[in-house]
Amino acid sequence: MKLNERHLMQLAAVLDAGGVSEGAAMLGLTQPAVSRSLAMLEARVGEALFLKGRRPLQATPLGFQLAAQGRTIITASRKASDAVQGFMKGTKGIVRVGGVPFFMDAMISRMIGEFQKLEPDVTVQQSYMNLPEMVAALESNQIDLGIVPIGVLDLGPGFEFTEILPGRNVVACRPDHPLLRNRRLRAHDLTSFPWVAPLPGSPLMSDLQMILMSIGMSDLNVRYSGGSLMSVINFLAETDALAVLPFSVVFAQRKENRVTVLPYEIPQPSRSLGILRRVGGPRSPAAERFAGHVTTAFENLKHIIKRHENAVIWGR
Fold first, then answer.
1. Same domain, 48 and 186
2. What are phi and psi of 188, to 5 degrees?
3. 189, burial (CB in 10 Å: exposed 0-12, middle 13-18, buried 19+)
């Protein structure tokens, strides 16, 4: 026997409110309309749903069971309405974000945590990827947005890029590195120490090649490669090794005092960190809300990072 779900909802509302008029008002319906629905429901099941002569209205055993199902439907309906409203506002849902490892670990992961405090009903799914994998993931709708450093590169009309931080690289080392005692750093000073190689596929690899050319070297003494950001920081903190890192990544580690900037000017890439999206694809309100949070966070950080950069006495 198939019953009309709306009739069950109205039965539950009437019993919870104690009367037909009160239940109708609760649902935003008229009293005659609810009365007709209850009469149709009683005719359908062939049994009385209310005990006669009781005020407020009381259910028969069958009416009690059907009202329980009606309450379940009401609860599910309200949850569905809340889900729709939350999705449209971007306060509920899933954000799928891909990003380059070092930036994700140093800065974006913290912003994800801050965003989660503001929007606890949004789930963030993060993936590590460089630009080629990111473009493919956006095209196949596997991620909603990517956070990646991009230079002068035309990805075509199918993508849009929003800059959130200008690019700047530095040579990083431990705070008590011997080179920090030099009054004036020269190119050959950098070749006297071991280096950390960037992750394969990272744009930092091409940046390291630019540094090599600028100091007249064809190769460096690479002693460590393939590590995560934390493992690179740990390696630098325990050795005299050097590494090329984004300035903002070193800035994000400043409170730990395990890595610092070697004040030597190196060639800078024409590249900015930003948010990459696919044009014309489905937009997730939660993802757009997250993108706005990241953009605002970097807008607030830009000035602090710039002051920190200006405090470094750069040499060459």
1. no
2. -70, -20
3. middle
Q: The domain containing residue 181 runs over which residues?
A: 169-262
63, burial (CB in 10 Å: exposed 0-12, middle 13-18, buried 19+): buried
Pairing type for strands 271-278 and 145-151 reads antiparallel
Whether 77 is covered by a domain: the verdict is: yes
Structure tokens at 73: 């439907």
Same-domain pairing of 154 and 19: no
Domains in the chain, number: 3
Residue 20 half-sphere exposure, CB side, CA atoms within 13 Å? 14
CA distances from 90 to 115, 154, 174, 291 (A): 12, 30, 42, 11
pLDDT tens profile 28-68? 899 999 999 999 999 999 999 988 877 788 889 998 999 99
Give the number of other Cβ atoms within 10 Å of residue 131's Cβ. 20
pTM for this model (two decimals): 0.76
Give the pLDDT of residue 118.
Answer: 95
**CA 125 to chain CA centroid, nearest Å:** 7
Closest CA to 149 of 161, 136, 159, 157: 161
Is the pLDDT reported for residue 316 higher than 70? no
Band (70; pLDDT cuts 50, 70, 90): very high
Q: Is residue 154 pLDDT above 70, yes or no?
A: no
Hey, CA dihedral for 128, 134, 138, 140, is it positive or negative?
negative
pLDDT in tens, 265-310: 888 877 889 999 999 877 899 999 999 999 999 998 888 888 877 7
By three-state DSSP, how is residue 11 classified?
Answer: helix
* φ/ψ of residue 240, rounded to 5: -95, 20
